[in-house]
Amino acid sequence: MMKWNLLRRLVAPAFLCTLLCCMNVSPVDAQISIVIAKSSTLDSSAATRVGIKEIFTGTRLKWANGAKISVIDQADTDVGKKFYTTVIGKSVNDMRKQWAKLLLSGQASAPVKCPSDKAVKKVIAGNPNAIGYVSTSALDDTVKEVLRIP
């Protein structure tokens, strides 16, 4: 009986902790915000899922005013992986292959790679022709949200 009480005291809290840890929401479940520089004059047709897909797949390379679009990417993050599967409908590796073809053909420049939401915001804030994506929870007043992806 004493062994059972001791076992129950040790196992029950460990089980509860494990269960609570498994219930935590991961960053991958967070919403994604498509962001541009505050000074940007975005073509409104680009602020749709279709427009974003065209930009990030290299189908659309210029804004309506003729300026070259600078794609800011963080594909190696959880947010990046979710962005490509949810919005683009392709894996990160498939997109790398697609961009490699565009680069080799001379049709496009490579997306600027960033390691985090903070880095994406910093690059975008300094370039009115840039567009990228961050976790919605990372939004602040340095960039402007144009589309939110649940």
What does it look like?
- This protein has 150 residues and is α/β, with parallel strands linked by helices.
- The protein has one domain: 3-Layer(aba) Sandwich (D-Maltodextrin-Binding Protein, domain 2), CATH 3.40.190.
- It has 5 helices and 5 strands.
- Strands 3-2-4-1-5 form a 5-stranded mixed sheet.
- The longest helix has 22 residues, at 2-23.
- The N and C termini lie far apart (52 Å).
Please name the defining characteristics of this protein.
five-stranded mixed sheet; D-Maltodextrin-Binding Protein, domain 2; 5 helices; 150 residues; single chain; alpha/beta
Q: The CATH topology, please? A: D-Maltodextrin-Binding Protein, domain 2
Roughly what fraction of the amino acids lie in strands? 15-25%
Shape: globular
CATH class: Alpha Beta
**What portion of residues is helical?**
40-55%
Second-tier CATH architecture: 3-Layer(aba) Sandwich
Write a brief structural summary.
This protein has one domain (29-149): 3-Layer(aba) Sandwich (D-Maltodextrin-Binding Protein, domain 2), CATH 3.40.190. 43% of the residues lie in helices and 17% in strands.
